[in-house]
Design brief:
The protein is α+β, with helices and mostly antiparallel strands. The protein has one domain. 46% of the residues lie in helices and 19% in strands. It contains 3 helices and 4 strands; from the N terminus they run αββββαα. It has a 4-stranded antiparallel beta sheet. A hairpin with a 5-residue loop joins strand 2 and strand 3. 19% of the residues are buried.
C-alpha cells in the first residue's frame, strides 16, 4: 500500500513539473509575440478531449500577422504554427475560415474572435471560471439548485 501511495505521489510531482515546463513554453511564445505587436488569445478546455489555446499576433487594424496554437490532451503538447490565418481580420473570422478538424481548436479560434470583438466594443473581458467554480456550478446543477 505504501508503494502505491509513493507511486501516486511521484506521478503527481512529475505531472506538476511537466505542466510547469509547458506553461513556461507558452509564456515564452506569448512574450515573443507580444514584443512584436498586439496578441489576441482564445482558449477552449478539453476535459477528456484535446484542449486548445490559440494566439494571433495582429497589427493595428486587426489583421492577423502570425498564428500559433497549443493543442493536446497531455502536458507534452507543443506550441505549433497555425497556418491559413495570415492576412485575415480576426474580428470577422467565419466558420469557413476554421480548420476542418479539431472541435476545440475551432472553438478556441471563435473565442479569440469574440474576445477581440468585445475588447474593440469597450466591454470588459471576463476571466474564465476556475476549476473550483466549474465544479461548484456542476454540483449545483446536479443537486438541482
Amino acid at each position: 500500500m505504501l508503494k502505491v501511495g509513493l507511486l501516486i505521489a511521484a506521478m503527481f510531482v512529475l505531472q506538476t513539473i511537466l505542466s510547469g515546463m509547458q506553461m513556461r513554453r507558452f509564456s515564452r511564445e506569448f512574450i515573443r509575440l507580444r514584443r512584436q505587436g498586439r496578441v489576441v488569445c482564445g482558449r477552449q478546455s478539453g476535459g477528456f478531449h484535446a484542449g486548445a489555446i490559440v494566439m494571433f499576433r495582429i497589427d493595428g487594424e486587426g489583421i492577423i500577422c502570425e498564428a500559433s496554437k497549443l493543442e493536446g490532451v497531455t502536458c507534452f503538447a507543443r506550441i505549433r504554427p497555425l497556418a491559413g490565418f495570415a492576412g485575415k481580420h480576426v474580428g470577422t473570422l467565419t466558420e469557413q475560415d476554421l480548420p476542418a478538424k479539431g472541435r476545440n481548436l475551432r472553438r478556441a479560434i471563435l473565442d479569440a474572435r469574440g474576445t477581440y470583438n468585445r475588447y474593440m466594443a469597450g466591454e470588459e473581458i471576463p476571466d474564465p471560471p476556475s476549476p473550483f467554480q466549474r465544479l461548484k456550478r456542476t454540483a449545483a446543477i446536479l443537486l438541482g439548485r
